[in-house]
From TrEMBL:
This is [Ni-Fe] hydrogenase, small subunit. Keywords: 3Fe-4S, 4Fe-4S, Iron, Iron-sulfur, Metal-binding, Oxidoreductase, Signal. The lineage of its organism: Bacteria, Pseudomonadati, Campylobacterota, Epsilonproteobacteria, Campylobacterales. Residues 178-252 form the Cytochrome-c3 hydrogenase C-terminal domain. One of its GO terms (cellular component) is [Ni-Fe] hydrogenase complex. Residues 16-159 form the NADH:ubiquinone oxidoreductase-like 20kDa subunit domain. One of its GO terms (biological process) is anaerobic respiration. Its cofactor is [4Fe-4S] cluster.
């Protein structure tokens, strides 16, 4: 007798649907493996068998509730229902075993919380009543990112399916995925070490000193688990914008904020004084090989 597959419900709240697009851009074989092992019973844009009202009224429990987008008690932010995203979320959470925030808006409020100028717009942790949080079998899991990497979604679901729990950092993110920095695995690290700056779109050079790259202080595995198995922002010549962090989005994201020519923020794990000393020494050297590659 075949084992019953765990159910997955995807609730799209206040969102641009970027995480849905990310999911659809995943590796086809991994997406197929996901569908073989999970019963994907509802997504507002991808499934047709059941409505959101059917899911809420159904007596059966939801194994994995995935939420894309920020939450608000204001009905005007959710035009496909007469209810608010907060009320709908509370109803779904009462039926769910695991709750996963998909993307930075669901995790921390993200762009919607910042630009709606409304204190009521927030991420899942701040939106859900404490008594409903206690009903969950696991603390809320934040898969932050704008959008989130599809592989992180699959890896989290399979880890929970097989092991029932995963280790989280202080922001509720899986340590296995967010325990290192986007800087780790970056192909531009040698330029970073010798303080050789590149420009937006260039194949060579570091993007930290002038272009606003946040990779040295952003918890993410983007340069280890590559997008489409081949690429990442920094590999394509785009500065990391720190989209997995609580303070995303920041103002002037493609610009390095400085004081007297010195970056205001230094890489995680090193004091500012030590970093300035190392930088001063590195800048006294000229690595011809790297400068030549930068000019090619």
């Amino acid at each position: 007798m075949n084992e019953k597959k765990p159910t997955v419900v995807w609730f799209s709240a206040i969102t641009c649907n970027g995480n849905t697009h990310s999911l659809l851009s995943s590796n086809s074989s991994k997406f197929e493996l996901f569908l073989k092992n999970f019963d994907f019973i509802y997504h507002g844009s991808l499934t047709i068998d059941k409505s959101l009202e059917d899911i809420i009224k159904n007596q059966e429990q939801i194994d994995f509730l995935l939420v894309e987008g920020a939450i608000s008690s204001n009905q005007k932010f959710f035009t496909t229902s007469n209810d608010s995203t907060k009320n709908i979320l509370e109803k779904l959470v009462q039926k769910s075993k695991y709750l996963i925030a998909v993307g930075s808006c669901a995790s921390f409020g993200g762009i919607h919380a910042k630009f709606t100028q409304n204190d009521d717009v927030c991420g899942l942790k701040d939106a859900i009543e404490e008594e409903n949080k206690k009903k969950l079998k696991h603390p809320i899991i934040n898969l932050s990112g704008c959008p989130v990497h599809p592989e992180w979604i699959f890896q989290t679901l399979f880890s929970l399916k097989n092991f029932k729990e995963i280790s989280l950092d202080d922001e509720g993110r899986p340590k296995e995925l967010y325990g290192t920095l986007a800087h780790h695995g970056c192909t531009r690290n040698e330029y970073f070490e010798w303080k050789i700056e590149g420009n937006f779109g260039q194949k060579e050079g570091c993007l930290f000193y002038n272009q606003g790259c946040r990779a040295p202080m952003t918890h993410s595995s983007c340069n280890k688990i590559l997008w489409n198995d081949i690429n990442s922002k920094t590999r394509a010549g785009m500065p990391c914008i720190g989209c997995t962090e609580v303070d995303f989005p920041r103002n002037n994201m493609l610009e390095t904020k400085k004081n007297m020519g010195i970056p205001l923020e230094v890489p995680l794990g090193i004091s500012k004084r030590a970093y300035l000393s190392i930088s001063g020494v590195a800048k006294t050297f000229k690595i011809d090989r790297l400068h030549k590659k930068l000019m090619e």
